[in-house]
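Notes to self after the call with IL:
- keep both proteins in one doc
- input above output, always
- annotate only the second one for now

Protein 1:
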Amino acid sequence: MRLSPFAPSLAVLTGLAAAPTMAATVTVTIPRQSVAEYQKPYVAVYLEPTAGGPAKTVALWYAMNKPDGDHGTKWLNEVRAWWRKGGRSLSLPADGISGATRAPGTYSIPLPADALSGAYKLTIEAAREHGGREFVTIAAKAGASGSGKTELGAVAVR
């Protein structure tokens, strides 16, 4: 079988046209705790303009649909920095942002298209009942990373 001289060029062009646009994500690790009464942490992931202004919530994990009827929102103010920087004005549940608390593990969260414009810093904040609270702030740019000490593990922008 003989290929046309245009076949390699067509294959390359087809591959470029079909390549998906990669969105930025932040990976967040919730470490395993060695305590008998482990409670999953409430976690807020938010972008703050470097020039100042209100925070933009990217993800919020809390105890949704609790049987006592409080819908889990009663303790959101324990995620203190996020709460003060705009969390209290967020209507919950927020489609595409809010979700249930997560067990220990590593999770990927998509970032908005403009997140890596250089105009934001990214903060991940965790608070846990019978535990501590911690936040990690990194630059909102590809390759940025950081790590917590107790409530949060490795955090990285990809």
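Protein 2 (the one to annotate):
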Amino acid sequence: MSDKEASYEVILEGAISANSGNLTVEEFADKFIDFIKANNWSFGGGMNQVVDGYYVDDDLNPIKSIDDKD
């Protein structure tokens, strides 16, 4: 396969934290997708909101700890 035929991707694993105030997944997603589009890139995947070490639902109710492995 030549370089012109190869598909190059970047896999992101991590967390984004606001230095001050609260950062909602919607606020982050809007800015992130704008950045992706501005560079003529695409994004496939998902995003989850985390509050105090717990994944939360849309109403910010804890779902499960980020430390849970299952």
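Annotation: Residues 1-70 form one domain. The two ends are 38 Å apart (CA to CA).
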